[in-house]
Design brief:
- This protein has 15 helices and eight strands.
- The chain is an alpha/beta fold.
- Strands 1-8-5-4-2-3 form a six-stranded parallel beta sheet, with helices on both faces.
- β6 and β7 form a beta hairpin.
- α7 packs parallel to α9.
- 49% of the residues are buried.
- The chain binds 5,6-dihydroxy-NADP and zinc ion (ZN).
- The site of 5,6-dihydroxy-NADP has 36 residues, from α2, α5, β6 and α7.
């Protein structure tokens, strides 16, 4: 096992009454709030009114920034940071899914340190300060509610990249599975794929960490159990709760302790280019890329695939059978596994390959070459 630091300062409230703790938590964090929201789902389904009432009853002043799009962009984060500077806010409340919370994290870094968002993300400058960030999660998928990561895209530089800082963990996050009842079926499928992909990114990050391997397998088995039932019962509290918690655990550190790197992230780096080019939802990009990546890298990761197959089935199965297990599950729940299923053809594949060659996405543990890109593109 490799040396590691276990650090996760986010206080997580989980359950039907989770949101009621918001006013107590923000009490001593200042008076002026920047409230960040997305394109409108939180207003449509009443979550916005619930939260805003609570903030007002707590006697706080509220400045709002709404309209953050899925696959969020650096321009919105910059605009929100500018508003934060103008209004001299004390704390941030993010209400929404990963896109809203990720944007809030970068707004926090840009505002608290008076630095440009993209320079921080490109690691040209290093933030040292933060203000308190509180997250009310409305969509189970990314794990951003209990980690220090954020992902933004920049259409000027043609990049979608992640940034991590220990300063970016939310101070507290509030997870009420009931708030996810309204997440449509397609978006729920995307979330399921994302959390499985996070488990796999952890699994392929090298080093000998058997307990972390078992956590990964347990989370994948748990997900494969509830997912088909949930997709037939989108308003079932227990099934929504199981998904919400498994998505958090897939990306809050539990699955990487003792490994060589904090995840591999090669498939995410490749998949982000599909979102960048065609604004494809994150989950769909992963159900297409992950099986293709496993097939292309099969020889290099053969033992790991066989071990994963054993942990998942209790039987000795081959690397190919393990890959099939995932591909079949993705198909079973209705996720796309080829680019043509989302309306992208051969010219688009060429464009994707060209962009990979320029941006050179790679894993932290499994280094990708141009040769790998070519093999991967043949499988998508
Ligand atoms: O924009 P609104 O109107 O709010 O609608 C959203 C959006 O259309 C909607 N939605 C959210 N909560 C809902 C709801 N609809 C109905 N009922 C609700 N309760 O769902 C759509 C997708 O929202 P989004 O926030 O984009 O989804 P997700 O949480 O999957 O976030 C995806 C983003 O997170 C990044 C992805 O790359 C992508 O940009 N990631 C962040 C990570 C992290 N910070 O750790 C790791 C991940 O690997 C990922 O890269
Ligand atoms: Zn992801």
């Amino acid at each position: 096992m490799e040396d590691f630091i276990a650090y996760n300062p986010t206080k997580l409230y989980f359950g039907r009454n989770a949101g009621q703790n918001l006013s107590t938590e923000i009490k001593n964090s200042g008076e002026k709030i920047l409230l960040l929201t997305g394109k409108g789902s939180v207003k449509k389904y009443g979550y916005y009114d619930q939260i805003k009432n609570q903030l007002e009853q707590a006697g706080k002043k509220i400045v709002e920034f709404s309209g953050i799009k899925p696959n969020p962009i650096v321009d919105d984060a910059e605009k929100a940071a500018e508003l934060a500077r103008k209004e001299k806010i004390d704390l941030i409340v993010a209400l929404g899914g990963g896109s809203v919370i990720d944007t809030a994290k970068m707004v926090n870094m840009a505002y608290a340190n008076d630095l440009p968002v993209w320079s921080i993300m490109k690691r040209e400058v290093t933030p040292e300060k933060k203000i308190p960030l509180f997250a009310i999660l409305t969509l189970a998928a990314t794990g951003t509610e209990m980690n220090g990561a954020a992902v933004l895209q920049n259409h000027e530089t043609n990049e979608k990249i992640g940034y991590f800082s220990p300063l970016m963990y939310p101070k507290a996050s509030f997870l009420n599975p009931e708030m996810t009842f309204t997440v449509p079926k397609g978006q729920t499928i995307n979330g399921i794929i994302d959390l499985i992909a996070h488990s796999l990114e952890a699994y392929f990050s090298g080093g000998d960490a058997p307990l972390a391997d078992r956590f990964v397998a347990a989370n994948i088995l748990e997900t494969m159990d509830y997912a088909p039932k949930l997709l037939d019962n989108l308003k079932d509290y227990d099934l929504r709760a199981r998904m919400m918690w498994s998505a958090t655990v897939a990306e809050n550190g539990t699955t990487v302790h003792g490994r060589k790197t904090n995840g591999d992230w090669g498939t995410h780096a490749l998949a982000h280019h599909i979102s960048l080019l065609w604004d494809t939802p994150h989950g769909q990009t992963l159900s297409i890329i992950f099986p293709a990546w496993m097939k292309a890298l099969k020889n290099a990761i053969k033992n790991r695939l066989e071990n994963l197959g054993y942990l998942l089935t209790g039987q000795k199965i081959s690397a190919d059978e393990t890959i099939n297990l995932f591909e079949n599950f993705f198909k079973q729940i209705g996720a796309p596994i080829r680019m043509d299923e989302i309306g992208l053809g051969d010219d688009d594949k060429k464009q994707l390959l060209e962009l990979w060659k320029i941006n050179k996405p790679t894993g932290l543990n499994i280094i990708l070459t141009e040769n790998d890109y070519q093999k991967i593109i043949n499988f998508v």
